[in-house]
Amino acid sequence: MARGPLTVETRRLLKEEDSNWTIKALARVLAAIFAAIALVLFAVSVSLTNQNFDNTSGNGDWSDGLAIAPAALSLLTNIVTLILLPLRSGRPLHPAIHLLSDFLIWALAVPSIIFATAGGLFWYWSPAIANANGEIDCAFFFNAWAEVCEPVAYTIGHVEIAGLVMMFGIFVMHIALFAFACVDMHQWRVNRKNGDKVEKGSFELQYSKDMERGSL
């Protein structure tokens, strides 16, 4: 009996074509979840940062904005791949498609993580220093980034940290999927090479038979 969008027959065909399809599907589900959360978190971070601070190193919060690209690409790629599983009735996509898409995603995730980490507001966090009267003077230089004086910076910082955790999850999932794609691509080439040999052997055998008949 069929369960969910994948029928028993489709699952059987998937298993025959690729014994690791369940692991790959789970990795894509996780990557899609990480990507969806990362998109929301970095969109919130960019919005809050642009509303409350002036970025002196560029137009807007570009360091967090960079992470939106690989997150969006990961979400789109994984959703499309998962939708195609039942639609293609167990026939896998060409491994080169996964090889290129997964490489592109993790390759974009690396600089995105680096820049988002380097430009994070959490680096500015500092403990509040009370004056002689035990009061926190926010006009005091060392209290400029204290939580009591700049609470939004801490909100943004926490959002950025959560977004970076999700981006790291995307990176790990697509590195694993890229490794699977490399193995699949190698196997595809081996199978194609062996298939060419079989086809060539069959052609030569048929040619020999035809020559023998012609000589009779």
Q: What does this molecule look like?
A:
This protein has 216 residues and is mainly α. The chain contains six helices and no strands. The radius of gyration is 27 Å and the shape is elongated. The model has no long low-confidence stretch (mean pLDDT 81).
Helicity, in percent? over 70%
**What overall geometry do the principal axes of the alpha carbons give?**
elongated
Order of helices and strands: HHHHHH
Structural classification: mainly alpha
User: Cα-atom Rg, whole angstroms?
Assistant: 27 Å
For the record, give the distance between the C-alpha atoms at the N and C termini, rounded to a whole number: 59 Å
Q: What is the number of strand segments?
A: 0
* Helical segment count: 6
Q: Mean of the pLDDT scores?
A: 81
Low-confidence stretches: none
Strand content: under 5%
Sheet with most strands = none
Topology:
Layout (H helix, E strand, L loop, with lengths): L7 H10 L3 H32 L9 H4 L2 H20 L7 H24 L32 H65 L1
Features of the shown structure:
mainly alpha; 216 residues
In short:
The protein is mainly α.
